[in-house]
Design a protein that fits this description.
With 84 residues, the chain is an alpha/beta fold. The protein is built from three helices and three strands; from the N terminus they run H-E-H-E-H-E. It is globular and about 35 Å long.
Length: 84
């Protein structure tokens, strides 16, 4: 799905009091569209949770993304995935 569309949907959902987080691949677009919370990952399109058949990495990425929901800062909160 388009990063811009996701950010717009996230903002609308947040306006009714539901926190959101997204995982994104293109940092320059995320910085431009400013989703409320996004984890920036260094992977290719189609592999936003990392390499296939690597459940440990995939769970780590999901956990990092969900941890953004606990950040008390004001949106936009954009964080790069921690190095392995």
């Amino acid at each position: 799905m388009c990063n811009q569309t996701v950010a717009l949907v996230q903002r609308a959902v947040e306006e009714v009091g539901i926190s959101t987080v997204s995982i994104t691949l293109v940092e320059r677009i995320a910085r431009r569209v400013k989703p409320p919370r996004a984890l920036l990952v260094p992977y290719t399109f189609g592999n936003s949770l990392g390499e296939p058949n690597n459940p440990l990495l995939q769970h780590e990425i999901i956990a990092e993304a969900l941890a953004l929901l606990e950040d008390a800062g004001l949106p936009p909160i954009l964080r790069k995935k921690a190095a392995l």
